[in-house]
Write a structure and sequence with these properties.
266 residues, alpha/beta, 5-stranded parallel beta sheet, 14 helices, 5 strands, 9% strand, disordered N terminus, Sulfotransferase domain-containing protein, P-loop_NTPase
Length: 266
């Protein structure tokens, strides 16, 4: 155990969740919106200016969908972070599929003309590629590479951060991990149960299990939500390219222990 981890922590009063593109962002958006309502807590999008507006007292919820929290927030000792990553291979496949159809109202960056694509938008460039594998490879070198850099840049040694893998969270149908996080946040037993109910009601294994019951914002982003889709959906060609490009990153993030995973592709 490090010296930092042994030091007593100030009781947290600010609970922040950080995700990355296609790692459960829409899920956490809905959960934290419901959590704010259920517990009557203010919620802030945690960028630099928001930190300056934080109330001096009382519990607060915060979100950042790139996990790019400002340094001022990291420097505080009254913050508890929840940080979510997902198997990057599933992030790649989910992102490539979603970026082919996502409207400007949801992802404006997809629809901005870009000089490097000859004036085409990201989505137009993606759709101009006729071969499905080539579209995924394009995604891999562009938006996906940015997302993976964000995941690698996170400091996983923070004593005040609870690290979640999407795969474990989506399988936690008893909501144990979320309940434990709210307990560590210092909420009362009644508040913990209210917050856990908000989590369950906005989860694909809970209140969102029936596709007909999903809100439009959820349905537009979510295909199945199941973990470990890549073995059945990633082609050997894409798999080999991924191994060459990001094989070390999979190991660093704990999703592989070596580079011998191509045999899992079906």
């Amino acid at each position: 155990m490090t010296a930092l981890a042994m030091q007593p922590m100030t009781a947290p009063r600010i609970l922040c969740v950080g995700t990355h593109h296609k790692t459960g962002t829409i899920w956490m958006q809905q959960v934290f919106k419901a959590l704010s309502t259920a517990l009557n807590l203010p919620k802030f999008s945690m960028w630099k200016r928001a930190v300056k507006r934080l109330p001096a007292e009382g519990r607060v919820l915060g979100t950042n969908w790139d996990s790019a929290f400002p340094d001022e927030l990291f420097a505080r000792d009254d913050v508890l972070f929840l940080h979510i990553i997902r198997d990057p291979r599933d992030v790649l496949l989910s992102g490539a599929r979603y970026h082919e159809t996502a409207p400007a109202s949801k992802e404006d960056w997809l629809h901005e003309p870009r000089p490097e694509f000859g004036g085409m938008t990201y989505q137009q460039k993606l759709l101009s590629i006729p071969d499905a594998d080539d579209r995924i490879l394009f995604e891999m070198e562009h938006k996906h590479a940015d997302t993976l850099r964000q995941m690698r840049a996170w400091d996983y040694s923070r004593a005040n951060s609870i690290e979640w893998q999407y795969e474990a969270l989506i399988a936690d149908t008893d909501c144990t991990q979320f309940r434990d996080a709210l307990t560590r946040f210092g909420l009362s037993a009644e508040q913990v149960e209210k917050g856990t109910r908000a989590f369950w009601e906005n989860s694909l294994f809970g209140g969102m299990a029936d596709p007909a019951q999903r809100k439009t914002v959820v349905a537009g982003h979510v295909n199945s939500g199941v973990a470990r889709q890549w073995p059945g959906k990633m082609s050997p060609r894409v798999g080999r390219a991924y191994l060459d490009r990001f094989g070390d990153d999979l190991i660093a993030l704990g999703y592989e222990t070596d580079k011998n995973w191509l045999g899992a592709l079906r």
